[in-house]
Request: fold
Amino acid sequence: MNTSSLVRKLRNFVLVSALALAPAAAHAGIFISVGFAPPALPVYTQPLCPGDGYLWTPGYWAYSPDGYYWVPGVWVQPPTVGFLWTPGYWGWGGSAFIFHEGYWGSHVGFYGGVNYGFGYGGVGFGGGRWEGGHFAYNTAVMNVNRTSIHNTYVDRTVINNVNVGNHTSFNGGAGGIQARPNAQEASFAHENHVAPTSMQQSHMQAAQSNRANFASANGGHPAMAAMARPGATNTAVAARGAQPAAMTRGNQPAMNNHAAQPAATSRGGFGNQGAAQARTQAPAQSHAQPQAQSRPQAQSRPAQQSRPAAQSRPASQPHESGHEHGH
Reply:
């Protein structure tokens, strides 16, 4: 075995070991670092909210030793009343791209300035608010059936028309979004935060187990860009440009790969936060914009779970930022 091969094996072992530790330390803010940027955010339509109390978490590119893979946007229930989701995001750290894990908290903090759409326009959150123990949805940017969910309102001022068409999925570096936390976001960083729920982690784990979600297989256009609830693949919607024949698991055809829907909303996604850093290094470089590809360094986290709750399909879908939902 030559030296380079040995070094490569040792490096992979370190990366896999770091990933194995991620679940237990997720709440501590473990980061994943990769030597090249994630693909652009795909464009997709937001599925209908499955029921009162569900909050939207935008889709995002996660990373494994096999490369970047798409974690579909999904509606989930928060860990407690009053909490909001701050999406995770990739940021250039000077020698590698680092993933800052998303978290739950009383306020939405900094998520790299990434425009995930559906209320996550790069700063704060305009998709809804808590009112007296109930979540009120802003139907200007959220796809909610107002016949069955009545705690809604309309506020179009939150629609981000500045970054329309900008599907950049990372902060800093060449070609990245040049945004920094404002004073308010900096203060939110010191609040008590809760790690992604077991349902969210299991959703991410399921995404990683599906080869069709990897950028190397879908070219940055996942056939399952978003779904109504974790595990509800029959509600999946495809990204614009996705191959209709894409698979969901192994060689099984996708259960509901509606061909890329060009109609409503905003974009897809990511989030922030952390403290410590499981920094597995990769060759330093700051590419402008990535694309489907290979496999350098460390990665994400596991999980367990699923979720019931049935759901219908509405007639109309909200528009945001002038581009179809999810980037």
The two ends are 44 Å apart (CA to CA).
